[in-house]
# Entry
Amino acid sequence: MNILCAPVGINQANCYLVYDEQRRMCAIDPGAEPDQLLRHIAKEELSLEAILVTHGHFDHIGGVKGLVEATGAPVYCAAEVAPVLEGIEECPAFGQKMSAVAAEAVKVVADGDTVEVGSLSIKVLSTPGHAVGSLTFDIDGHLFCGDLLFYRSVGRTDFPGGDFATLLTSIQRLASLYPASTPIHPGHQWSTTLGEELAENPFLGGLEADG
# Structure
């Protein structure tokens, strides 16, 4: 498995391009600048076969439509996020509608589901707290968690649908399922490990790894 991280948009949200040895890939949270992402994909000679969305905030979904229209790749998201992608509901917390993605491209997934992309087997975990319908994707033991958990911080919970206790419960769930060495790839800033955050993150006092 190979991982490329491309921060995009005014909020510099991390879009991850994850691909296998045949260069078949998924894009996680293409939040903006689809043309730039498509140039990355072409330069690396990758085949985009799936788009994964961790949650429905604009800085994580703003580039989805451009990638879908250019490649025909399906979009996998939680049920709560599908109406936002399809332009039916406003983007939570930001009071705006996104450019609608064709409904037939949107595929709803839920906790425990698996998405196959080439030789990559992607496990879906429900991890609410930052936003309703927040997901984490486990790819080969690497966790792509959106805005759930950051390097020495956590996602905001003051937006509609956010709840700090729920966010901590989601992080504790990951700690119960995965070892401390598990890589965490967040929606902003730097990658880290689950164990580092449980030990050093000031927002996680009392949480422990038991996976």
Q: What stands out?
A: The longest strand covers residues 2-8.
